[in-house]
Design a protein that fits this description.
Shape: elongated
Distance between the termini: 12 Å
CATH topology: FAD/NAD(P)-binding domain
CATH superfamily: FAD/NAD(P)-binding domain
Structural class: alpha/beta
Number of domains: 1
Number of helices: 4
Strand content: 15-25%
Order of helices and strands: EEHEHHHEEEE
CATH class: Alpha Beta
Largest sheet: 4 strands, mixed
């Protein structure tokens, strides 16, 4: 299939461009090596903010509980649960983007994208297979 638009990268700029183009009636493929949302959503900004929220709650419980008339003894944390919550937040948001791709009929292609020439985008999948996507013009 030849596409009106092939977007390389499913981060904040790429997924928005892909969705908007599809909403305008264009046939679109979005190539992303990782999950939709890119580094920011999956490994950077979003999971970091989720971890920060855990730290803020822990700090409040350890230092300010008495202000609310609460006594908390033996407060601890489960590091794997903290990381698990961070991953769940990212997974939920990435799933939302993937849902929007499906809703807008965007072909979501997993792999590393590279420009191979005019109107041609190469995609190297995690298993090493290589395919070429093409644009209409």
């Amino acid at each position: 299939m030849a596409y009106d638009l092939i977007v390389i990268g499913g981060g904040p700029a790429g997924y928005v461009a892909a969705i908007r183009a599809a909403q305008l009636g264009k046939s679109v493929a979005c190539v992303e090596a990782d999950r939709a949302g890119g580094t920011c959503l999956n490994w950077g900004c979003i999971p970091t903010k989720a971890l920060l929220k855990n730290a803020e709650v822990y700090q409040m419980l350890t230092h300010k509980a008495a202000e609310f008339g609460l006594k908390i003894e033996g407060l601890s944390y489960d590091w794997s649960a903290v990381i698990g919550r961070s991953r769940k937040v990212s997974d939920r948001l990435a799933g939302g983007i993937e849902f929007l791709f499906k809703k807008n009929k965007i072909d979501y292609v997993r792999g590393f994208g590279s420009i191979e020439g005019t109107g041609k985008v190469g995609v190297t999948a995690a298993d090493g297979t290589f395919t070429v996507l093409e644009t209409k013009d």
